[in-house]
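anyone seen this seq b4? input:
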Amino acid sequence: MANTSRSSKPINKGQTQPNTKVRKLRTKIKKSKNNLKHKTAPTKGIRSYSRHRQKAKKRKTLATSMFVAVTLLSSAGMVIAIGWISILFIFNPQMVSWLNPFLPEWAQITSGSKKPHTLKQIKAQIKRQKRISGKILPLENNTDESFLLPIYLDRKNCNSDCKYIVELRTYQRATDFEWQSSIEKYYHLTNNFAVTGPEEFEVIAPLVEAGIEENPGSTIALPVTEIKRFEKDAPKSGIWYYLRGNRSSGSNLTAYGYILHYNLKRRKLQTMISWTSPTGDLPQWQQVTGDGDKELVIRQTIGLEPRLRIYQTKPSEFVINPITLAEITLKPPALKDRAYKNALLIARNGLWTPSNKWLQFIKKQQKAKITPAAQAQIDLISEHSQLTKKLADTSWASPSQQVLAYLIDGRWGEALKVFEALPQNPAEIRNLLKSDTGRIESRIDAALEVNPNRSEVQAWKALIIASKQSTNQGYYWLKTQSNISKTSQTYIQKLLAQI
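predicted toks r here
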């Protein structure tokens, strides 16, 4: 039996079967797909960079959104917290007393541990401390809503002024409902500070400068024994007080102390300046510069030598007490004008009246240029000039005192007339010039500095040299001065012959 086949067609030699061709074609297609799949495209780097930027942008947007959300949540939290603190501050302030370290002293919240007390309780506590309650000084329109209380200690082994002030306190009536509704009045302590008097060397400084006290003084604090309110002429910006003590030395009674100011808005008591007066005069408020408020005047005149310290009230940047006392001084000159500077130069050396005359002339000539600071200096000089003029116009029994009063006021010619009227007894004037500690000679030198050609001043310069050194030295000085005329030299030589 003949063999049968699946294909009826015979297979020629060298010819590939159809199934084999299909397989090869499929293999090629598969390879092409694989090649295309793994082949690196020329734009692959650009596409990768673009995808990276998009991802970064998405991250940045997400971070911004989160930051805005956190900020809004924090702000809302702060608003809620501040609102809650405000409510507590109004209805129960003691619950927020932890804020005190972050608040100024005047705004601090009274904690529960600092509860108010009655006046009886306050005095009892002071007594337990072995101290003495002083006289109550009312604050704020003299009502019992607030008051100042000085506290004293006793000095041992003393004959007078045995009590001295060691502390000052101010109290304000409690306004809390709990205490306000009580029959008795309760008070919160609003200020308290220790009081230490000024040191001795500071108190006697004017006496040392005048040569009355030889000992310059110690650093021992002197006691203050009195506190009083300025009832008259004080500025209306708050309440003004003075603390006072006294120091006796021979026939001299020196008063000293402090000036205090109470700020009504801040309820703050503060020390402003210390003061001393070798004549025992209390500080006074008086009109000096013509401003709205009067000035504080402290008198330190000793003998014929006038000295005033004058203070103006000025605004201050200090929040708790935005007011200060600024002393009017002659340095630096308030105007750059040369004549004005020369006028202040002779005033600083004690020639108050010549300086005042000069300044009044300058004021007329340059009225538009006179600033408030310059006017204050002019007024300070005018106040001193009034004192020296009054002393010079007084008839003195002693020729030397009369000469001294004239020289202090710059009346050179009138002083020479008194000297010339004593040809038989010049020793009194010679002793006056010889014992001069500088107040006469400094005036002479200042006058010669601004006008070296004035013969009356030249004469007194020669006389003071002759008195302090020798007559020959007076003649020698006279010969060395080229700006002295022959007529003046002859006149001064006759004066030197008398000394």
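Confidence is low (pLDDT under 50) at residues 1-16. The longest helix spans residues 44-91. kinda curious what u guys think
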